[in-house]
Structure formats: structure tokens, C-alpha cells
Amino acid sequence: MILLCIVLGAVLILWTKKQKEANQIRIGNIITFSISLTVIFGTLLKIYQKDFNYQEDLPLHLCSFLALIIPILSITRKYVLYEIFLFLILGGTLQSIITPDDYNYLNFPFFRYWFVHAGLVIFMFFATVIYKMNPTIKSVGKSFLGMQVYMILMFVLNFFLGSNYFFTNRKPNAATALDLFGEWPQYVFVVEALVIPYFLLLYLPFYLTKKRSNAS
Predict the structure, then answer these.
(1) How far is it, in rounded angstroms, from Cα 27 to Cα 16?
(2) From 17's CA, which of 50, 139, 168, 189 has a CA 20 to 30 Å away?
């Protein structure tokens, strides 16, 4: 699945690069709205099937939340949104692709999981190439601050709902990188300490590419 997503993402970006600007913007909107509508449809489907649990199924986990608001970036193409979303998606959503917590196969939950998570990552590379946006070192700080705002909101919401959105109260049931960081609340503090170094590591390829481009 990861290999398929890489191939499809690369083909989509290369094909879009050859289109006129108006079509590029249209394609970007189609991508983001498709991602967002998939999350909304999945939530409504659970409600219709009477399988909805507000403590688990609200679209408030980081990837689902980002999927809901990602159309704002494709519509406005605001650079500050790109800065904030880039490292949250590459740092969080990419991790969900490498260590998925949903092992359904060839059904709607499977499609939803991969379409949303891979779609978010692909779109951020799409925005980098097609919208010609690139992060700076300041983008790391902005994305970190955006994460803190989101995490505080989830802490408050989880307190009132008894939920575990953004895994602030306990680790996910499936094996993830959080298993390396101890039990709650230790893993929360470990993640906080690692976020900026992790974001800087993600920024490094952009920095090296920009430096090589300037040198030539």
C-alpha cells in the first residue's frame, strides 16, 4: 500500500505540473475536498449504522481533524497554513501510514484510512511542488505552536467527553512508536521533547534542497 501511494502520488503531481495554473488549483481543491468528504461520509456512515461512539468516532484525531480543514489550504493557498500543516502531516500522518492502527482489508474503513492518510501526505508534497511553497526554519516553530494549541483543545475535550483523541490519555491499541516512550503520562512528555528535533529532521531535506539550488 505504501509503495502504491508513492507511485500514485508521484504520477499525480508530475501530471498536474504540466497543467495550466487554473487546472492545478482545481485539481488541488478536488484532492482536499475528496479527503474531507471521505472523513465526513465515514462519520455519517457510522451514525447511520448505529455504530457511532462519540468517545472514539468524532473526526477529532489529528489526521481526521486535518482532513476536515485541509480544504482551507487549497482554497486560500495561505503560506502560514502550509507551514503549520506541513510538519503536522509529515510528522503525524506519515507515522500513521508507516504504523497503521487499522488493519481492515478491502472494505470502506480500509479505503478511508489509506485514502485520508496518504492523501494528506501527497497533498502536502503537491502544495510544495505545484503551489511552489517551501518551509523555512520558522515554519518548524509555527507548526510546533499549532500542535500545542490542538493538543490543549484535545486535553480539554477529552476531560469532558471521557475520550482519548490525539491519544492524550492512553496509547492506541495497535503497535506504534509511542510504545517506545513508556506509559502515560511519560510518553506525552517524551513526545513533546522530541517534536522539535523530529520536525527539524523533516525540515532537513527541504533545507539541503534549497541550499543546493542556491549554490547552483
Answers:
(1) 8
(2) 139
